[in-house]
Amino acid sequence: MRSWVFLLFATLLIGCNTTPPDIILDGILEVPENRDDPDSRTLKLVYKVLKAKDTTSRKAPIAYLQGGPGAATLIMEGFWENHPLRKDRDIVLMDQRGTGASEANCTEIGDMLFAIMRQNLSVEDDFRATDSLLAECKETMKQNGVDLAGYNSRENAADFEDLRKALGYKKWNLFGGSYGSRLGLTMMRDFPNGVRSAVLTAILPPEANFLNNSIQNFENSLFSVLERCIKNEGCNKRYPDLKERLIKILKKLESDPLHFEFEGKPFVLNTHDAYLLLFVSLYDRYSISNIPLLIEAMENGETEPLRNALKGFEYIFNFINWPMNYSVMVYEEFPFNDLATMDQALNSSEIGFAYPPNSSTIKLLNNWHSFRATNIENQPVVSEIPILLTSGGLDHVTPISNAKGAIKHLKNGYELLFLDDAHNSLYNPCFYQIAEDFLNDPLHKPDMECSEVRKPIEWNLSNPLQ
366: which strand partners? Predict the structure, then answer.
């Protein structure tokens, strides 16, 4: 499992739902699994519509597009329940095909992948264990009649178009991030007549070759975070020489991993695990504030901060539906990335030694399925639909350059940047203020003045994790 890096968006924005049932519309949408196959079986996709608080409002609804790929959507009901954007707009939620309540497959695989991570396996043994687990899952899916060719953004976008029509909406506004931004751009490309506007964050356009650039994106973000700590008097005093210490401990963990108990079972933290912990910690500004503490904990063998960080990591393993994740990535990313470019980035990285071998990633992806996208899935989306593209200056998955490239082909696009945010911008009230202004008048640039107010990282200078 250490040989795969995934996209993720909004993993912790879950709340308890207290919405009265009379203002929620529940339903099941039946769609073909593979629209290219006339004999395709039917999928049942579960959706909910949180009706606008203002029952007299006629404003176009918001279709929320979850990230992952492979993350469930309906768990976001509590987040959207009392959200300001719901005041006068319906919020439409649907578990995407193969996720959550919409016929997810191999839902137990997350626990099994985490069990592999617990061990200090060699690269070869880690690959064999993961590949065997995925092969068993794939065989189960085959016996259940699952067609892996149907799990991609093109089919996903068509599902949402069918839902829009079924709900009777003339047009709607798209709202999503990370993989959700990729899905949103696909909907704008394939079904432009149904889209009024789009608010997308953590931009992943089709032309951005994620696998080729993932190592460099991660390193750029991580070193930028460490540099910010150096420039902060309190952080630098508490955690001096962070970059040198990071490289030293990552090398030490190669031959001398940490052994400790996690949730009553043994866990071995090696250099690849340390890399993944740092990767996950870069998703938002709150976990970023703990990165210096994690480096220190790995140095000193202080396992409590590591256990706390692993709790979130374990949650992620079970939050994502891996068959959906792999299927999308193999179909849309794998054909347009190459091992030579990935290895070049690995070899030029200062911490590339901590990154799992690219050859293992390529083998796992290649073994999953044989379906590959055509060139359209690697071309920029050209559109005149109004769109707001939001990026975080510390984003390690979808850097600012993604939005800057995409907006060149979006005639009515506006670019929004939060220099002190990371991959996840959903904690930022300024973002929602700008998003609401844009949704109310998408043909005019919204006032973005609040985005210029800097919000430095509030470093964790104590223990335990924040």
Answer: none
Dist CA 373 CA 360 (whole Å): 21
- Counting as low any pLDDT under 50, the low residues of the chain are 3, 5-7, 9-15
Residue 192 lies in a domain: yes
Q: For helices 109-118 and 303-319, what crossing angle results, to 10°?
A: 150
Strands 258-262 and 91-94: unpaired
Residue 182 domain-assigned (yes or no): yes
The verdict on whether omega for the bond into residue 206 sits within 30 degrees of 0, i.e. cis, is no
Q: State the CATH number of the domain containing residue 32.
A: 3.40.50.1820
Output DSSP code: residue 11: S
> What does each C-alpha distance from 236 to 64, 231, 239, 289, 446 come to in angstroms?
40, 7, 5, 13, 38
Domain assignment of residue 129, yes or no: no
Q: What is the pLDDT of residues 16-28, one digit of tens each?
A: 555 555 588 999 9
First and final C-alpha spacing in the chain: 27
**pTM above threshold 0.85:** yes
Query: Judging by beta carbons within 10 Å of its beta carbon (0-12, 13-18, 19+), is residue 349 exposed, middle or buried?
Result: middle
Task: Quote the pLDDT of residue 331.
Answer: 98
* Count of CB atoms situated within 10 Å of the CB of 136: 13
**Angstrom distance (rounded) from CA 458 to CA 420:** 11
Tokens 């578990």 appear where? 95
Provide the domain count of the chain: 1
Give the rounded distance of the alpha carbon of 44 from its chain centre: 24
Q: Which domain range does residue 438 map to?
A: 21-105+148-206+376-452
CA distance 150 to 164: 20
Question: Please, what is the angle between helix 153-167 and helix 322-332, to 10°?
Answer: 110
Give the per-residue pLDDT at 97. Answer: 99
- 259: β partners: 268
Range 236-245 contact pairs with CB under 8 angstroms and sequence separation of 24 or more: 238/292, 238/459, 238/461, 239/292, 239/293, 239/295, 239/296, 242/292, 242/295, 245/295, 245/296, 245/299
- Across the beta sheet with 172-177, what order do the strands follow? 24-32, 42-50, 91-94, 62-65, 172-177, 195-201, 387-392, 413-418
- In the three-class reduction of DSSP (H, G, I as helix; E, B as strand; rest coil), residue 385 is classed as coil
Count of CB atoms situated within 10 Å of the CB of 111:
11
State both tokens at 354: 């901590």
Residue 256 falls inside a structural domain:
no
CA–chain centroid gap for 170, Å, is: 29
Spatial CA neighbour of 324 closest among 43, 30, 29:
43
- pLDDT, residue 17, reads 53
